[in-house]
From TrEMBL, chain A:
Reported function: NDH-1 shuttles electrons from NADH, via FMN and iron-sulfur (Fe-S) centers, to quinones in the respiratory chain. The immediate electron acceptor for the enzyme in this species is believed to be a menaquinone. Couples the redox reaction to proton translocation (for every two electrons transferred, four hydrogen ions are translocated across the cytoplasmic membrane), and thus conserves the redox energy in a proton gradient.
Boundaries of every NADH:quinone oxidoreductase/Mrp antiporter transmembrane domain copy: 116-399
EC annotation from Swiss-Prot or TrEMBL: 7.1.1.-
Catalytic activity: a quinone + NADH + 5 H(+)(in) = a quinol + NAD(+) + 4 H(+)(out)
UniProt entry tagged with the keyword Protein biosynthesis: no
Superkingdom to which the source organism belongs: Bacteria
UniProt-annotated location(s): Cell membrane; Endomembrane system; Membrane
Keyword terms: Cell membrane, Membrane, NAD, Quinone, Translocase, Transmembrane, Transmembrane helix, Transport
Name assigned to this protein: NADH-quinone oxidoreductase subunit N
Originating organism: Flavihumibacter stibioxidans
UniProtKB/TrEMBL annotation, chain B:
EC number: 7.1.1.-
A Pfam family that the UniProt record links to this protein: Oxidored_q2
Catalytic activity: a quinone + NADH + 5 H(+)(in) = a quinol + NAD(+) + 4 H(+)(out)
Enzyme class name: translocase
Record keywords, A-Z: Cell membrane, Membrane, NAD, Quinone, Translocase, Transmembrane, Transmembrane helix, Transport
Record's subcellular location: Cell membrane; Membrane
Record field: transmembrane: 6-22, 29-53, 73-96
Topology with respect to the bilayer: Multi-pass membrane protein
The protein's name: NADH-quinone oxidoreductase subunit K
Gene3D superfamilies per the UniProt record, alphabetical: 1.10.287.3510
Function per UniProt: NDH-1 shuttles electrons from NADH, via FMN and iron-sulfur (Fe-S) centers, to quinones in the respiratory chain. The immediate electron acceptor for the enzyme in this species is believed to be a menaquinone. Couples the redox reaction to proton translocation (for every two electrons transferred, four hydrogen ions are translocated across the cytoplasmic membrane), and thus conserves the redox energy in a proton gradient.
Stated family: Belongs to the complex I subunit 4L family.
Subunit and partners: NDH-1 is composed of 14 different subunits. Subunits NuoA, H, J, K, L, M, N constitute the membrane sector of the complex.
Length: 458, 112
């Protein structure tokens, strides 16, 4: 509750500070301070103290899983602000509004991670989506940004329509939006409506997290949006919608006792295949990362496939590892003059720190041991093995992880083994130290993943 | 009137909306079709709400709710749809300023 209310208040505060403060550095500092406050307040709530105690009539339910995810999302956003806030202030003139919209998105994130009613799920998803349409189109004179915004908007509202139809059918079958009531009356009443509704709900959520075959908007939107905002979209937002999906599956699908597992397995395999194979053929690193985010969504789908304690630990680790690494890579990418693979040629000589940290991030995304990405993938696959059915999916996922090594290592090869003089924007020493810190955290958690997971239980 | 008639009308409106989104090329018409989908859902929710109210009046069925929250949901959908219209029309106007067209076939610059 703390995070939901405070993030909305901070959004309004930043909108007003846009009127009174014209200094961009000052606005950046206000946003960073607000983010620190938000993270602190959420950690306080994890320890059992609520600043705002509101009776939500069981529409929201705050458990450790959701609160821990909130903390991860807020920490990742804080890191994103520290690394990229200066680039956010360069996108356009409405600096305060960009920060305000990001705070509103975080409000939606906190709703999606704690909903206990389909109404709150719908509101959370919309509070995430609508500011994102604006951020995608924030580079107003750039035709690619316009196009990405329109495409994202049309696809997003279309999938919202499908989601609402699903919710309406579930309501028709059960007479309530509350997940508890739906789970308690799972096999009573009008089953045909209920399953049709669940299917539509699943399709619309698959749209939002870009699961194949509903992924086709993702590369275009991620490519066209300003790079700083792509970073936010591809990491924190995507992980948040996955957490919502896990909650939904945990409570409704797992108890409905139907053979939804085969369907999820097919979606997972399709996502892994499409994401990895298409990423190989990309010429631009930004577009490659867009496809790689589809491929990573395929791994996150394992959390839906096998609902057990392993998969919950796995999705938390995955959200953290993927967010850290991708925010880091995008922070470096924003500084590059040329986004193609050739643009990275010889980066190791011109900017050794950037090249070394980017290597760590890419290794983590590929799932090489001693990085957090390895344990994230390990937990996901272990949960699928533990659930005991459809083992072919595990082998297929390992095969696809091997394929992903090819395109991640292509960047490393460009940076270290190719001749060239990669050009970057001027980079401050604070930025370098921060990247080194992120890389250190990735390696540290790759050795001791329990440092995060223990918070799930105590 | 039986509930089935309402469901048929709502599904028909929803399908018209979906087909419109998939086949039309004008951004504003696509947008109208999406609104049609949302309003089909509104109609369905209100019809279900009345149906659950009738169920609640029948003591043999023992349902937990009286169906009021379905109508409440409709208000939220209206508010969210209004917010979406604001953002969506702004995006379409921004697009029109740059390309002097609202045809979505213009949207092919991002392919490679």
């Amino acid at each position: 509750m703390n995070a939901i209310i405070l993030s909305a208040i901070l959004g309004v505060v930043l909108m007003f500070s846009g009127i009174f403060v014209s200094n961009k550095v000052m606005l950046k500092n206000i946003a960073i301070a607000g983010m620190v406050l938000l993270l602190a307040v959420n950690i306080i709530e994890m320890n059992g103290f609520r600043v705002f105690d509101v009776n939500t009539r069981n529409m929201l339910q705050f458990n450790r899983f959701g609160l821990l995810f909130n903390s991860i999302a807020f920490a990742a956003t804080l890191l994103y602000f520290l690394l990229s806030a200066r680039d956010i202030t360069r996108v356009g003139i409405n600096v305060a509004e960009y920060f305000a919209l990001i705070f509103f998105i975080l409000c939606g994130v906190a709703l999606v991670s704690s909903f206990n009613s389909l109404l709150m799920l719908f509101l959370g998803i919309e509070i995430i989506s609508i500011p994102l349409y604006i951020l995608t189109g924030s580079d107003k004179r750039n035709l690619k940004s316009n196009e990405a915004a329109l495409k994202y908007f049309l696809m997003g509202t279309f999938s919202t329509g499908i989601m609402l139809m699903g919710i309406a059918l579930i309501y028709g079958a059960k007479g309530s939006f509350s997940l508890d009531t739906i789970a308690a009356t799972i096999n009573q009443g009008r089953d045909a409506w209920f399953y049709a509704g669940l299917l539509l709900l699943l399709i619309s959520m698959a749209f939002k997290v870009s699961v194949a075959p509903f992924h086709f908007w993702t590369p275009d939107v991620y490519d066209g949006a300003p790079t700083v905002f792509t970073s936010f979209m591809a990491t924190i937002v995507k992980a948040a919608v996955f957490i919502g999906l896990v909650r939904l599956f945990d409570i409704i699908f797992a108890t409905s006792g139907t053979d939804w597992k085969l369907m999820v397995a097919v979606l997972t395999a399709a996502t892994l295949l499409v994401g990895n194979i298409t990423a190989i053929f990309q010429q631009s690193v930004k577009r490659m990362l867009a496809y790689s985010s589809i491929a990573q969504a395929g791994f996150m789908m394992f959390a839906l496939f096998s609902i057990n304690s392993y998969s919950k630990e796995g999705i938390i680790l995955y959200a953290l590892g993927y967010s850290l690494a991708t925010v880091g890579i995008f922070a470096v990418l924003v500084k590059m003059k040329d986004y193609t693979f050739e643009g990275f040629n010889g980066l190791a000589r011109t900017q050794p720190v950037l090249a070394a940290t980017t290597t760590v991030f890419l290794l983590s995304l590929a799932g090489i041991p001693l990085t957090i990405g390895f344990f994230a993938k390990y937990f996901m696959l272990a949960s699928a093995v533990k659930s005991g059915s459809h083992l072919w999916l595990v082998f297929f996922a390992i095969l696809m992880a091997v394929v992903s090594v090819y395109y991640y290592f292509r960047v490393i090869q460009s940076m270290y083994f190719k001749e060239g003089a990669a050009e970057t924007e001027p980079v401050s020493s604070g930025f370098r130290w921060l990247l080194i810190g992120v890389a250190a955290v990735i390696i540290l958690l790759g050795i001791f993943p329990n440092m995060v997971l223990q918070y799930l239980y105590f | 009137m039986p509930i089935n008639s309402y469901i048929f009308v709502a599904i028909a409106l929803f399908s018209i909306g979906v087909i419109g989104v998939l086949t039309r090329r004008n951004a504003i018409i696509i947008f109208m079709c999406i609104e049609l989908m949302l309003n089909a859902v509104n109609l369905l929710l209100v019809a279900f709400s009345k149906m659950h109210l009738a169920d609640a009046a029948n003591p043999a069925l023992k349902v937990a709710t009286n169906g009021a929250d379905g109508q409440l949901f409709v208000f939220f959908i209206m508010v969210v749809a209004a917010a979406e219209v604001t953002v969506g029309l702004a995006i379409i106007v921004m697009m029109y300023r740059n390309t002097h067209s609202v045809d979505v076939n213009f949207l092919n610059r991002l392919k490679n």
